[in-house]
Please model this.
Amino acid sequence: MFSGIVEETAKVVSLVKEGENLHITMECSFVDELKIDQSIAHNGVCLTVVAIENGTYTVTAIKETLERSNLGLLKVGGLVNLERSMVMNGRLDGHIVQGHVDQVAKCIEKKEMNGSWYFTFQYDRNPLMEKKGYVTVEKGSVSVNGTSLTVCDSQLDRFSVAIIPYTYQHTNFHEFEVGTIVNIEFDIIGKYLSRMMGID
Model:
């Protein structure tokens, strides 16, 4: 489980296809603190460390993960938002993020607003999933590339978020342009509430 507070960005140093799997090797400042089998969120996707070598670590994304997320679009040299799993006796600074990406969305607008930025993302609607809580709500929470954010201008197939300068610089948001594909995870509380209300 994660909180959506990105620790840092990792640089992709190698991408290796093996069958339908993709082995992603990255470098970051805390490689020496990692352990095999440890879970880390990568652009919001929970993946397991499978190898640590020469100041880098490797995770493996399977076919379903590649189809549901933007990890299959990674390039060597690109940046990935990282967050290690939440410490249960610590503060929850963001919101509850499972690391189970629901779908991708496309950036359709980026506006600079006196030092901050507004991004608008559009995603494919699925009325059945909407009934199960896979939606955004005004002033609710959403995870974009693993970053916990507050929704503004929530609409049926799109939403906007405001990004402060610190977040812009310390995540891969500064690489986003119109057309960039991101991972989104809708708020788990909304999903549970929909299930408890008997919405199938």
Helices lie at 63-68, 127-131, 165-170, 188-196. The domain at 103-196 is CATH 2.40.30.20 (Elongation Factor Tu (Ef-tu); domain 3).
